[in-house]
């Protein structure tokens, strides 16, 4: 575990894993780090090459309310126009997290 991670949770979602971490910067201020990790398989099927593509975003405390409002509105828009999605089936040992804003 990285020394600057104060809290960490993983969300397994199909071929992706989302990591939600609380970190602290040099000024001792906490912020949210969200990482999407996607497994990529390429090459020969007998000797596949496995790589992970990662994307990160950082959300700072002063932006939490704006981010929370925007995310909630976007999710409500999708559910209104396409309905709620069926939940993914969990495998043993996986953690499913419901986010509520």
**How widely separated are the two ends?**
27 Å
Widest sheet, order of strands: 1-2-3-4
Instruction: Kindly provide the radius of gyration, computed on alpha-carbon positions and rounded to a whole number of angstroms.
Output: 17 Å
Query: How many structural domains in the coordinates?
Result: 1
Q: In percent terms, what proportion of residues is strand?
A: 35-45%
Structural class assignment: alpha+beta
Quick recap of the structure?
The protein is of the alpha+beta class and 101 residues long. It has one helix and four strands; from the N terminus they run ββββα.
Structural descriptors:
101 residues, alpha+beta, Nuclear Transport Factor 2, Chain: A, four-stranded antiparallel beta sheet, 1 helix, flat
Could you please describe the fold and organization of this structure?
The chain has 101 residues and is of the alpha+beta class. It has one domain (5-82): Nuclear Transport Factor 2, Chain: A (Roll). The protein is built from 1 helix and 4 strands. It has a 4-stranded antiparallel beta sheet, with no helix packed on it. A hairpin with a 5-residue loop joins strand 2 (16-24) and strand 3.
